[in-house]
Amino acid sequence: MKKKLISTILVATILTGCSNQPDVLLTYSENPSRYQYDQSDNINMAEFFATDLTVIPDDLNHMQNSDITATSSLIVNISDDEVLYANNVYEPMYPASLTKLITALVVLKHADLNDMVTISYKASHITESGAKLCGFKEGDKIKLEALLNCLLVYSGNDAGIAIAEHVGGSEEGFAKMMNETAKSVGAVHSNFINPHGLHNDNHYTTAYDLYLVFNELLKYDKFVSIINQESYTAQYTDKDNNSKEEQFLSTNRYLKGIESAPKGITVVGGKTGTTSKAGSCLILYSKDDDNKSYISLIMQARDGDSLFSQMTKLLGMIP
């Protein structure tokens, strides 16, 4: 069933599903679905919907499948603009490392991948327990393109801070770019605080917004080639100009052969994300034997095994 709506209906549909507006959310409770916002900061919603966008109206946003137990889930045939399954796609959620998708979009839109980046003290001293790190040291020098690979393939949080400081001047400056870039593709129900997705109560998005961001990223051949890698070898120099080389493995079980997609479906690539509050998350770009393309997304699964099991069930819905 195709769902294309013009601007006014789109705004009404989205706001029915989630009443927040971009850049105006001031306070969160412990549950990110309960919030307050200040309407004094008027947003011209129409500018984000000047062209038709695929949307999921309420009657398609609460599908039920006993095998799909994650809080939010979605699969869309982007070749035919057809929603195959959707549940709670406008619910505000903590995105964990799916945040790195909007980080990548800012880089691809606004930065030169040939830039050399010097790793700062802050980027090399992330102390949060469980944070995934590439292990870069202060003073290391590495190309921005290599950092982008490390960010997307291995999900290195230190790569995220290094990117943010280089491109935005600071994490705060980069976060502003993230939110502006998100709005530019119609992802107006998000608020990004950092470039990596380590937990912050005011850092949130929705499955629908991530779908829009990911769909925009697929326009970049560089992005598609990066997420298709099983591993990436970064070459860089340390502060004393000694050459370094490090291999980073993908977090995507399909690419590593640990999980298998249904017959006839090829997983091109995607992005994982996990924190204690976000749960286990995954977004994928896949193709079928007819070369039709799909975006699928699971947010807040119980754990990694459940995440990939549910994703395989979603992919199994492809006719």
Short description:
Strand 2 (25-28) and strand 3 form a beta hairpin. The chain has 9 helices and 13 strands. The protein has helices at 7-17, 100-110, 144-154, 157-168, 171-184, 207-217, 221-227, 253-256, 304-315, and strands at 4-5, 25-28, 35-37, 53-54, 72-77, 82-87, 116-118, 141-143, 231-237, 243-249, 265-275, 279-288, 293-301.
Structural notes for this entry:
The chain has 9 helices and 13 strands. It has 319 residues and is an alpha+beta fold. It has one domain (4-315): DD-peptidase/beta-lactamase superfamily (Beta-lactamase, 3-Layer(aba) Sandwich). Strands 6-5-13-12-11 form a 5-stranded antiparallel β-sheet, with helices on both faces. A two-stranded antiparallel ribbon has the order 1-4. Strands 2-3 form a two-stranded antiparallel sheet. The longest helix has 14 residues, at 171-184. The chain is globular. The two termini are 13 Å apart. The model is unreliable at 1-51 (pLDDT under 50).
Oligomerization status of the protein chains: single chain
Helical residue percent band: 25-40%
Mean pLDDT reading: 87
What is the name of the CATH superfamily? DD-peptidase/beta-lactamase superfamily
Q: What is the domain total for the residues?
A: 1
Class of secondary structure makeup = alpha+beta
Order of helices and strands: EHEEEEEHEEHHHHHEEHEEEH
The biggest sheet amounts to: 5 strands, antiparallel
CATH architecture: 3-Layer(aba) Sandwich
Report the total helices.
9
What is the class in the CATH system?
A: Alpha Beta
Distance between the termini: 13 Å
Got a strand count? 13
What is the radius of gyration computed over CA atoms, rounded to a whole number of angstroms?
A: 19 Å
Strand content: 15-25%
- What fold name goes in the CATH topology slot? Beta-lactamase
In terms of per-residue confidence, which ranges show pLDDT below 50 for 5 or more consecutive residues?
Answer: 1-51
